[in-house]
Design brief:
Blueprint lengths: L7 H15 L11 H12 L4 E2 L7 E2 L2 E2 L9 H15 L4 E5 L8 H10 L3 E6 L23 H21 L3 E5 L3 E2 L7 H17 L6 E5 L9 E2 L4 H11 L3 E6 L9 H10 L3 E6 L16 H17 L9 E4 L8 H20 L3 H9 L3 H12 L4 H10 L6 H7 L2 H9 L9
Parallel strand pairs: 1-4, 4-5, 5-6, 6-8, 8-10, 10-11, 11-12
Antiparallel strand pairs: 2-3, 7-9
Bound molecules: manganese (II) ion (MN).
């Protein structure tokens, strides 16, 4: 049995006290319509993965200010995600990053995860940093590199990540490449693309038949002139050339300013090539802020396209899409930040489920722009928090996860267990 820093009994007591002071979450919603009931059930099913690198404080190149009590090992990271799952009922998996996560004995890690009712989501490879003792440097790229030995090393690393992932029960590999160039003339774009494609092909061929390969794109950073997988078009090009197990992965922060992400989502779904989603928020660039903290309406519009597009293709929101929060916490307690992000994802999902799609279709066909906007904003302006609370209550999770995290003094407990100086690996 896993050691719990929060007992289910504490959640029951917290919920009882909450219900006593606030009443039942649904009381303000009138009689529970069949539609609302459907939303609650969809929310109970919905699960989002937590990346192992988001459990500690992130930082910038200017500094890092640890929260204290950060996980020191993979077991402790699993335990932190277990806590998030206990509090929300909606975070049933952890996504690992190799080699930041030392898996040790995978069998033990699987047992530790299962003890917290968790499984392993997508595994992530890393060819954007040099590791101690590494023979060839990735300074000038990995799969795009001019030197075949460097490319072979990057491919071998990805094959090793697949091997580890198989032992953990993962079903997908996420590849994000920092490959690109920072100065005009540095790179032959075509050669960089073709070499990267060749490398991805060898990685793709090593995938087990029930696995997926996610190709994550990013507009800029660490390179500032070109990126070899720089946007959704380039990612889709690779995924299309590789085959049916390859998909594009959308990370909200990886676009240029003002990009219409909801349109990208709609077209990728239409092509059957949207495989995964990384949630975060930003004001300027890849800021990795709490989901929904800056542009909640954009998040809603994206979810609307996701809900409508998945329905159109008969997709299962859980089995057919890899959902993950990919954020970094420079100032907030990482676990509180993740609780807020999970809630923001659920709220946007619930609002999107409330859109009257038939009425929207009619408005679109009649060129009634005013009515179309009314329909979307009617759903967006519905306070769906009671539905999210009801879903948590029924799942045995906490009615107020952040409130309980604070009431129970969980950060203080973690600091006592792990130390004030304990720092997690990550961004
Ligand atoms: Mn990402």
């Amino acid at each position: 049995m896993a050691t719990l820093i929060l007992e289910p009994e504490q959640i029951r007591k917290h919920n009882e006290a909450f219900l006593e002071s606030h009443g039942s979450p649904m009381q303000g919603m009138g009689t529970l319509s069949a539609e609302m009931e459907k939303v609650v059930r969809r929310l109970m099913d919905f699960q989002v993965a937590i990346p192992s690198w988001a459990l500690g404080t992130g930082g910038t190149r200017f500094g890092r200010f640890p929260a204290g009590g950060e996980p020191r090992s993979l077991e402790e990271k699993i335990s932190d995600v277990g806590l998030l799952h206990l509090l929300t009922g909606s975070a049933d998996s952890i996504s690992l990053h190799i080699p930041w996560d030392q898996t040790g004995h995978p069998g033990e890690m699987v047992r530790a995860a299962n003890a917290h009712r968790l499984h392993f989501a997508s595994v992530n490879s890393n060819t954007f940093q040099d590791q101690p003792g590494q023979k060839h440097s990735y300074k000038f790229g990995s799969l795009q590199h001019e030197d075949p030995a460097t490319r072979a090393q990057a491919i071998a690393h990805n094959l090793e990540v697949i091997r580890l992932g198989r032992e953990l029960g993962s079903k997908s590999l996420t590849v994000w490449l920092a490959d690109g160039s920072s100065y005009p003339g540095q790179l032959n774009f075509r050669r960089a693309f073709q070499r990267t494609l060749e490398g991805l092909r060898l990685i793709y061929e090593a995938l087990p038949p029930d696995w997926k390969l996610f190709i994550e794109y990013k507009a800029y950073e660490p390179h500032f002139y070109s990126t070899t997988v720089g946007d959704w078009g380039q990612s889709l090009l690779y995924a299309g050339k590789l085959g049916p197990q390859a998909f594009t992965l959308v990370d909200l922060g990886h676009h240029l300013a003002h990009t219409n992400i909801e349109q990208i989502v709609a077209l990728l779904l239409m092509e059957g090539k949207l495989g995964g989603f990384h949630f975060n928020d930003s004001k300027y660039g890849d800021d990795d802020l709490t989901v929904g903290c800056i542009r909640p309406y954009q998040l809603f519009l994206i979810f609307h396209e996701l809900v409508e597009g998945m329905e159109e293709r008969g997709m299962d929101p859980l089995a057919d899409m890899a959902w993950m929060i990919d954020a970094s916490h420079n100032l907030k307690d990482p676990l509180e930040d993740l609780l807020q992000s999970i809630e923001a994802v659920q709220i946007a999902y619930a609002q999107a489920l409330l859109v009257d799609q038939d009425a929207l279709d009619r408005a679109q066909q009649g060129n009634d722009i005013v009515e179309a906007q009314e329909i979307l904003q009617d759903a967006y302006r519905t306070d769906v928090r009671p539905l999210v609370e009801e879903a948590r209550l029924r799942a045995g999770a906490a009615l107020d996860p952040v409130g309980l995290f604070r009431e129970a003094g969980l950060r203080e407990l973690l600091i006592r267990q792990r130390g004030a100086g304990a720092r997690a690996t990550g961004l």
